[in-house]
Amino acid sequence: MLRSQPQQGVKILTRSQFRLFNSLLSKEIIFPADSLYRRLGCAVLTILLLGFSIESPARNFESIDNIRSSVQHYITSNLIQDKDSSYEIGHLDQRLKLDRCDQPLEVFDAGGTRPIGHSSLGVRCRGSKMWKIHVPINIIRYSEVLVVKQNLPRGSILQASDVEPRRLDISRLSNGYFTDKSEILGKLLKRSLRRGDILTNGMLDVRKLVKRGEIVTIMASSNTLAIRVKGQALMDGRKGDVIRVKNHSSKREIQAIVVATGTVKVSM
């Protein structure tokens, strides 16, 4: 029987050599660092050290206090006109990072700036590094406002003794207010009010001076003549309203202007 011959150049390990080789594979083999690894390690370490030691140039930021001071100066110079006014500047985040302006800051009307109440002002830099922001503001104004002195039922006709002035922040009175008693005298309350309530136009109604069906005096006058006749109102009317009335003498319907309680006037 022919036996295969070992190929030329191939060395057959003996049993003892094979055991030694196998034992080496099961152990951790540590190679000593050669010059290549040492050079590579030094290069990496140098790069890391340089990365931590090199710092970017520090940026110079605009002071929040300087921005607020500029807005304050604009308000006191342009928006606050008397001792009855004050103001508030909204919060500016201390983390706001704007490049320091190499020109004086410019404060301007942002387009919706109101003379009273909440709005905003613009602040901008026109220097080498331009930027613009909007700063919230609140302009507060105080005035003597009419309030009710005591509880009043619906339908009450207002008298001067029913109201009194009180100093209030009118920037908060979005529904309106009155400052002059002559504006509310003789007006009718549409609803009941409690002591301290602020009077507004929406609470009041102009009292009807003429009611439909009642007898009225019809006045007519010229430079040389004045006539008064009786008639009947065919419509309700407040002062200044034009209503239809019926002349008792002529039985004709005419148009007249309400001038007082139970009195209308026609042109001649």
What is shown here, in short?
The protein has 268 residues and is an alpha+beta fold.
Question: What does this molecule look like?
Answer:
The chain is of the alpha+beta class and 268 residues long. It has three domains: 64-141, no CATH class; 142-205, Antifreeze-like/N-acetylneuraminic acid synthase C-terminal domain (Type Iii Antifreeze Protein Isoform Hplc 12, Alpha-Beta Complex), CATH 3.90.1210; 208-267, SH3 type barrels. 17% of the residues lie in helices and 32% in strands. The protein has three helices and 14 strands. It has helices spanning 15-25, 35-53, 64-78; strands spanning 85-89, 106-109, 117-125, 131-148, 163-169, 188-189, 204-205, 208-210, 215-221, 226-233, 237-238, 242-247, 253-260, 263-267. A hairpin with a 2-residue loop joins strand 13 (253-260) and strand 14. The radius of gyration is 47 Å and the shape is elongated.
